Amino acid sequence: MKNISFKVELTIGFIVITLVNFSLNAENGHNLWLRGKSITNVNVICSEKSPTLKIAKQELQQCWQGESNATISLVIKNDKAIKGDGFRISDNKIQAKTELGILYGVYELLRRQQIGKSICEEVCNPSYERRILNHWDNLDGTIERGYAGHSIFWRKGKDAFEVTEIDKQLWQEYARANASIGINGTVLNNVNASPSVLTIDYLKRVKAIADVLRPYGVKTYLSVNFASPAVIGGLKTADPLDPLVINWWKTKVKEIYAIIPDFGGFLVKANSEGQPGPQDFGRTHVDGANMLADALLPYGGIVMWRAFVYSPSNEDRAKQAYLEFMPFDGQFRDNVIIQVKNGPVDFQPREPFSPLFGGMKKTSVMPELQITQEYLGQSVHLVFLATMWEEFLQSDTYQAGQKSTVARCTDGSIFPQKHTAIAGVANIGLDTNWCGHLFAQSNWYAFGRLAWNNYLTSDQIADEWLKLTFGQSAEKKNEVNSIMFADWNINFLQPVKQMMLNSRETAVNYMMPLGLHHIFAADHHYGPGPWWAPKGVRKDWTPPYYHQADSSGIGFNRTETGSNAVSQYHEPLQSIFSNPKSCPDIYLLWFHHLPWNYIMKSGRTLWNELCYHYEEGVQQVREFQKTWDKVQPYLDAEQFVHVQNKLREQCINAQVWKDACLLYFQQFNGLPIPYDIERPVHNLEELMKSDMQKYP
Fold it and tell me: Which of the residues 48, 273, 334, 487 is marked catalytic?
């Protein structure tokens, strides 16, 4: 399903390339959104010196697109209006309290120049103190849920600990990309952490990485295995209340800071999916998190303790995190932040927000977003995630009255938080274009921009990214045919931006509309598998657990007559979600098991509504193909072919999703597919057989 013949790809690619009207240098996407080059000179005045300020000056000189021979001043000065690493910007001056604030101001100034946005004096402060990428990179170089090649940080073999000039160059480019969008931290390894990362050879490599990232203001963090004292420390236990364990962690933290003085702290996945944790010793999340926090406190380090507690339970999986963490609200140390996935289950194409946001009022809570599209087509499907994250951040929790949005509940606007933070699971690998899909770069960019300003709109972010990524190519081609490219904004920017803004809803339509969730095949989380439920497998690992389809209807009953997960939300949400008449259609089957003939707000039956959503998803991807083909003259040949091939595969996948789900669910209801919807082109038995052969 996912694989297209390599020979076919080559043939198609050759044909398309030869037909492109204009020829540019090959565009492989490696430069991301950092393509601006100086067209004029600029004079930079700065009375202070440092590696970070040197970078700021170099960026201005290399990327300046303002008035020729203009003078711009970089000034470090306190200002009550400037918070943290924020800055005050104008067309001739950048002022900040910190060197890093100056660098961020430089990138903002250059971004505005390159996208044609006016520059007026204003203060720009970050929404979150810590804006962090989580890399799920393993020490052997593989990446869990990575779809863009191997790790940029780790590799196996005899040269695993060698630091080459190529390594340093790649890390420098990575640091620059992050700094340009305000990301100031990175967790270098998988949350399913190997204890070995805390051994001296690996810590020396972490130091080498940290040394490259430091001038760009990117701190290094590590995921740690809670059992490390027993696995690599020679202790008989990892009990967080054992004095020997406490001392082991204090000693290890002291060792880390002696090597990396600005080390950021630990990310911990504990007592989830088989990972060790304090509960293994009869202790609590508070016991474990606070013990690590105490070890880190003298050095200014933090603990990001994940609330993804996915363990065998008789409770609805959507309730687990809330049930485990709410009793401990207010008991965690100030340098502990509870890291919570945006939804209560697991990065699904659409989920309601986790009720822990706003629910925990006395504890620092940080959102965890997934950039890497594990459940949204991975590196194949074009899905712009900013719309999902905007929907999430602007969701009203009502925890402190109306407009208690998730954004305001996590950025310190409503509840006092010692630290504020946001994390994104990175989609970065050794692929030349970093992300496996040219448009997947937009999600890395979008995370950084929303982490800096959680009120930016998806439209604004898409507009910026498209201009930064494709505008330079358009300018080059403009020299060849100024008439054709004078209308770039109308004929390229607007249709492609609309494609991006529609793309997430499109994916939801052809995958899991109306609140359906987690109905993927086996464990690869790519194609459909609503049937997958082998004997002996945990029920909450299988799609039938989530869709609950039977002859009477479909959906997960989370009202008071079911799991009562709805009770975890504050009023009026409890009442809104509990009643299918008031529950938004987008969450309907998340909260309700309803009859196939239930009458929707549209006037259609539930079954027909599902059918039309699946059909719409397929048709929308086909429209994406048409949109992309129309903009071919505005693109580099390599850009065009790359995305065209991805869209072709996405369209095939969308059809498989539609056919698999409708044919499977049809077995329970025996109802016809509406006559004006295209007939399935696949056979259910063949789809099921193919999936079972791969994942029995």
Answer: 273
